[in-house]
Write a structure and sequence with these properties.
Main location: nucleus
CATH topology: Rossmann fold
Strand content: 25-35%
Order of helices and strands: HHEHEHEEHEHEE
Distance between the termini: 36 Å
Domain Methyltransferase small: 37-125
Structural class: alpha/beta
Pfam family, one: MTS
Subcellular location: Nucleus
Bound molecules: S-adenosylmethionine
Helix content: 25-40%
InterPro entries: DNA_methylase_N6_adenine_CS (IPR002052), Euk-Arch_PrmC-MTase (IPR052190), PrmC-related (IPR004557), SAM-dependent_MTases_sf (IPR029063), Small_mtfrase_dom (IPR007848)
Strand order of the largest sheet: 3-2-1-4-5-7-6
Number of strands: 7
Length: 215
């Protein structure tokens, strides 16, 4: 069992401004642990976490990939989160390129088709649309209608970003309508599966995995 990354450098005051790792984060870690062999065999050359928050997931995935030559990118819209990710990477001796940006802005067209691994624990909570789009801690959860507004903005870009062998993982809850998301991605040429699911309080969490459909 791989240890959870060391986040002892992040204090209560930090979590007033960035997402504190919670059930969804830990389910994501568990899913990546289950996928470790697959990921090692995939040997990703370039990876991307969208919305890295504390940096916990990226540090964990980096440990799975070990000493491989994977260039790891993270983005977050919240400047405090990008700083926290940087500190977490340093604290856990992993190297990551961190970009403060909206979703994947600035990565296309230069990195089109280059990512072998993309993962996102998005803001998925159902909220009024007006709450979506901040760059503070609310960005961690505010997902708008059906909790899908940020998710739906990203989905069309996945086919442009992923390489031919690329894989995309995403956290969702039942209210996000996972089957509908899987259908949208199917139309973009992706097969999908549920790699992990867990009931956390009233939330039913899923980890979805997407790979390009084989002809
Ligand atoms: C649920 S938190 C997940 C944080 C961390 N990855 C984890 O699993 O603990 C969602 C993260 O996405 C970021 N985020 C929200 N909207 C974003 C956007 N449009 N572009 C980039 N990051 C965004 C938030 O700032 C937050 O850090």
């Amino acid at each position: 069992m791989l240890p959870t990354p060391d986040l002892s450098h992040l204090k209560r005051q930090d979590y007033e401004h960035i997402y504190e790792p919670a059930e969804d984060t830990f389910l994501f870690l568990d899913a990546f642990e289950d996928e470790a062999l697959f990921l090692k065999e995939l040997q990703p050359k370039i990876s991307l976490e969208i919305g890295s928050g504390s940096g916990c997931v990226t540090a964990f995935v980096a440990k799975i990939l070990g000493e491989s030559n994977c260039l790891k990118f993270c983005t977050d819209i919240n400047p405090r989160a990008t700083r926290a990710t940087k500190r977490t990477a340093k604290h856990n001796q992993v190297s990551v390129e961190i970009i403060e940006t909206h979703l994947i802005s600035g990565l296309l067209p230069r990195l089109q088709g280059q990512f072998d691994l993309i993962y996102f624990n998005p803001p998925y909570v159902l909220t009024p649309s007006e709450e979506v789009g901040s760059n503070s801690v609310e960005a961690a959860w505010a997902g708008g209608i059906d909790g899908r507004e940020v998710i739906d903005e990203l989905l069309p870009y996945i086919k442009c970003l992923l390489s031919s062998i690329g894989v995309f993982y995403m956290v969702v809850i039942n209210e996000n309508k996972p089957d509908e998301i899987r259908n949208i991605m199917r139309q973009d040429g992706f097969d999908s599966s549920i790699v992990k699911t867990r009931l956390a309080g009233r939330e039913k969490l899923f980890i979805l995995k997407f790979v390009r459909a084989t002809l």
